[in-house]
Amino acid sequence: MTPHVVILGCGFGGLFAARTLAGAPVRVTVLDRTNHHLFQPLLYQVATAGLSAPAIAAPIRAVLASQDNVTVLMGDAQRVDLARRAVLLEDGEQIGYDHLIVATGAAHSYFGHDDWAPHAPGLKTLEDALEIRRRVLLAFERAERESDPARRAPWLTFIVIGGGATGVELAGMFAEIARHTLHGEFRRFEPRNARVVLVEAADHVLTAYPPELSEKGRAQLERLGVTVWLGRPVTGVDADGVQLGADRLAAKTVVWAAGVAASPLGATLGVPLDRAGRVIVQPDLTVPGHPEVRVIGDLALIPSHQPPVPGIAPAAKQMGRYAAVSILNSLEKKQPGPFRYRDYGMLATIGRNKAIAMFGRFQLSGYPAWLLWLVAHIFFLIGFRNRVVVLVDWAWAYWTLQRYARIVLGRRKDI
Length: 415
Fold this sequence. Notes:
Largest sheet: 6 strands, mixed
CATH class of the domain at 114-258: Alpha Beta
Shape: globular
C-alpha cells in the first residue's frame, strides 16, 4: 500500500515539504485551516496599505495543482493521536497517516496577559493585517472628526510594542503613511504631526542583529520620525493606551509585535516542550520515540543545533525539504544525517530606502540593504502574477509616495 504522508500547515515549511514530495511514491495530504499560502514576510505591507491581500497570498490548491499525488484539505487540526497515528479535526473527522509533518507555526504571545489582545492585535494572518490596517486608517478618520486637539492626540498616537523585525517594519511604515501618504488629505489636522512610538523592553531594537547594525536600524527609524523607547517593559494595555511602569502613554491604536508562542498543537503530542511551547525534537527533526513524526519550522526546537535555528522563512523552507527527503530515505531504509541549517543571511526593512542586512560578517545598511531586500522578497514570492503585482505596486508607491490599498470595511465601535 502506498505510504500516506500528512502535512499539517502550508506555510513555508509545509509547502516546501509538499513540493519536495512531488512525483514520489507516496500519497500526500496537506491540511491547513485556510485555503491560501501566505508570504508572511510581506504581511506588514498589507497591514500598512502598501499591498492588497491577494498580492502576498496564493490558493494552496492552485500552487499544488500539478502534483497528482497531493490532496489539499481545508480544516483545523485539534490533536494528534500518536498511538493511533491519526490527526483529529475540529469536526471529529480523523485522518490516518504513515508519516506526519507538523508545520503549524506560531501564534501571538502576550506573556500571560491575554486580556491585552483585543486592544493590541498582533500580526500573523491576513485577518490580523486587515484588522490593523482598519484600525490605523480609521484612527485618522476619527481624528478628522475631533475638534479638540487634546482629544484628537490619542487618535494620532500609534504605539508598536516590540522592537524585532515586525515591530520595526510596522513602525517605519506607520511613520511613512503619516508623513507622506496622507499629506494634504485632511483639513482639521496635519497627518505629519501624528506620533509613532516603538516600545522595546530590551536596550536595543533588532536584537537578532549585531549591535552596530541594531544601532543603525534605530537611527534610521528616528530619521523617519519614529520615537524609540528602549528598556521600557509594558505593564498594561487597554483601550485608551499603554502603561509603562509609572508612565502612561495615551493612544487609541496599539499593535503587538513583542512575542510569539508555538502552535498549541505541539502540546497534544505528549512530548517535551520548551518554555515557548516548541517541541523539542531530535537532530533529524523527529519526535522522541516516534520516528514517523517530524516537527518543523517555528514549532520545532533542536537542542543539538548550535547556534539555534532562527524562526525565519529560510529555516522553515530548509526544514520542510529535509523532512520530505528524510521520509523518502526512510522508505528506502536509509538513515538521514542530522538537519543542518545553512544561514544565507538576514534582512530587515525599516522604510523607504532604509534597511539593514547581514550575511555572515558582511553587513549593509541604508539604500543598498533596502534594494537587496526588495529584490529578494520579489524573487521568493509564490507565483509569477504575485511578483508582477508587487513590483508594480512598489514602483508606483516609490515614485508617488502613495498607498492605494486603503479600502477598509466596517467601522470601529468607538467612531
